[in-house]
Design goal:
By secondary structure, the protein is of the alpha/beta class. It folds into 2 domains: 2-242 and 291-301, Rossmann fold; 333-541, no CATH class. Helix content is 33%, strand content 14%.
């Protein structure tokens, strides 16, 4: 059950010819306002019944990367004649749970108006190995923006660095095909979004988890510099594989596939295999993400940010109080007991925590969850925030604290878990995938809705202006300050009192630092907690200084 749940989580989580102007037709002429002209042909969308937004789904931004185009840079789409229906989201990119290699498509949504609006491009999460386009229709309506949700090649199809595939093109030879797809999608947006009423001079890129990490990478890749203007980073990691590690991993796939050929013959053999066969040949410990090759991706994010060698722009970023909680359950924990904590959820047994962990075990669990989650933020959020704040004064950082009503068992086990903030920025406080809806109750409905309205308002203001402030009803969100006593993060939380809509929004001086958290663990005297964090949460310790 845990493995299937993890795969499902990653799935959930996740050119041109601009027109001179945008002129949506009057509402009575429904067909006309749904037809847009791209550089490759005309497309026709539909109206979302729930939100009233105009939507275009399954819009191609590149030629299908199949056959000889597997492990090649994305190519421009093939032009078509007539009007192409774009009313259904494309099949997800091939991943362990299925999908297709023909997957380089995007979804667009916008309010039904004649306005030229800011654009928000969403890069889904899923460890760069799973996921698909996210539904941004509701947020497009709330924020009065154009949203674009993209897909990109995943796993070894999107990240594969092997000399047999060398073409002499530094971009292709880097093996960063997923990143190339993201840049191709941004280029398509830059040159075509005016046809959908989007402002090509006001583009924000955002993502969660792997999508957030990819967004940070895009800040360091010169080819992407002119394609967007603001960035939103939710629960990013900072771990970066080296070029040597990427080559070794790709060689591991070749070995597991039983291929003995070399050079061009090996490239032909690899392209002749099914994508599913390649995915199933995953070496132990394989992971996926953009790899600094010294050319296409000049250097690691940590080095780029610490030295100021990145594209400066307004940035809104942050993490969740309990980022690591679900990984603890997936990892099993001591004697496999943490895996049994899924059973506290109503749909999994509705057990009490005390039925599974004794008092000492509960203390260890809480300590590990807090420490590992803060380590995640220390390396993935606070390190880059401090580094970038040396070169710009518009880095806005949040600390998402809401995990359901305080004192409940789901709040203790999962809390403000990884991806939980998505339900509040984008889905009205009505989405809790990790907890199977257990944190959503009638008693905390007012708190959830108030918190979601505040968070979505901050984010909408940022997308429109590059600054989350502007609503008189909300506290001022100050940028991160590197001063010793300077403010750092905006606390995002709400009251647990039944029926209350009281918000807990305020600036804090919280800054999580890896050495301090490890020192705290050592001082606790809990050897089990320290050992587990150092062994299992090592990816959160990956930030290093640069020469």
């Amino acid at each position: 059950m845990n493995r299937n749940r993890m795969i499902a989580f990653f799935i959930a989580l996740c050119l041109a010819m601009p027109l001179a102007g945008y002129s949506a037709q009057p509402a009575a002429d429904a067909d006309s306002k749904l037809v847009s002209v791209t550089a490759y042909g005309r497309i026709k969308g539909t109206i979302d019944g729930a939100t009233g937004t105009l939507v275009w789904k399954g819009v191609p931004f590149a030629k299908p990367p199949v056959g000889e185009l597997r492990w090649r840079a994305p190519q421009e789409p093939v032009r078509w004649t007539g009007i192409r229906d774009t009313i259904e989201t494309a099949e997800k990119c091939i991943q362990p749970s299925g999908g297709s290699e023909d997957c380089l498509y995007l979804d667009i949504a916008r309010p039904d108006s004649n306005d030229i609006l800011p654009v928000y491009v969403w890069i889904h999460g899923g460890g760069n190995s799973a996921g698909s386009t996210g539904n941004m229709d509701q947020f497009a309506a709330f924020a009065n923006i154009v949203t674009v949700s993209i897909q990109y090649r995943l796993g070894p199809i999107g990240c594969f660095r092997h000399e047999a595939l060398s073409t002499g093109d530094t971009h292709e030879d880097s093996g960063n095909f997923a990143l190339m797809d993201q840049i191709a999608a941004l280029r398509w947006v830059k040159h075509n979004i005016r046809s959908f009423g989007g402002d090509s001079k006001s583009i924000t890129v955002g993502g969660e988890s792997a999508g957030a990490s990819n967004t940070l990478v895009l800040l360091t890749v010169p080819e992407a510099f002119d394609l967007f203007d603001r960035a939103v980073v939710e629960s990013s990691g900072m771990r970066t594989a080296t070029d040597e590690q990427a080559r070794k991993q790709s060689a591991g796939y070749v070995k597991n596939l039983g291929l003995a050929s070399t050079g061009k013959a090996l490239a032909k053999d690899l392209r002749s295999l099914s994508a599913d066969a390649i995915i199933r040949s995953k070496p132990d410990g394989a992971g996926f993400g953009s790899v600094p090759d010294g050319n296409f991706v000049p250097e690691s994010r940590a080095c780029a940010f610490s030295k100021g060698r990145y594209k400066k722009m307004p940035i809104l970023m942050g993490g969740n109080r309990d980022e690591y909680s679900a990984w603890m359950l997936w990892g099993g924990g001591p004697k496999g007991k943490w895996a049994k904590l899924w059973q506290v959820l109503p749909g999994e047994g509705d057990k009490a925590v005390a039925d599974i962990l004794n008092e000492a075990e509960r203390k260890t669990f809480a300590l590990v969850s807090s420490a590992a989650s803060r380590l995640w933020q220390a390396s993935g959020i606070h390190y880059p925030a401090r580094a970038m704040a040396k070169f710009q004064n518009n880095v806005y950082v949040y600390d998402f604290q809401w995990g359901g009503t305080k004192g409940t068992k789901v709040e203790f086990v999962l809390g403000a878990s990884h991806a939980n903030e998505l339900g509040y920025f984008y889905y009205g406080g009505e989405w809790d995938w990790m907890g199977q809806g257990a944190s959503i109750t009638e008693e905390n409905r007012n708190a959830r809705h108030a918190l979601s309205n505040a968070m979505a308002t901050y984010l909408a203001r940022f997308i429109h202006t590059g600054n989350p402030n502007g609503s008189a009803a909300l506290p001022v969100w100050k940028p991160w300050s590197n001063a010793p006593a300077g403010v750092k993060t905006m606390n995002l939380d709400a009251s647990s009192e039944p029926g209350s809509s009281t918000l807990k929004l305020h600036m804090t001086t919280r800054e999580y630092l890896v050495p301090e958290i490890l020192k705290e663990l050592e001082a606790s005297g809990d050897a089990a907690a320290l050992e587990w964090v150092k062994r299992t949460a090592r990816g959160t310790l990956a930030v290093t200084d640069c020469d």
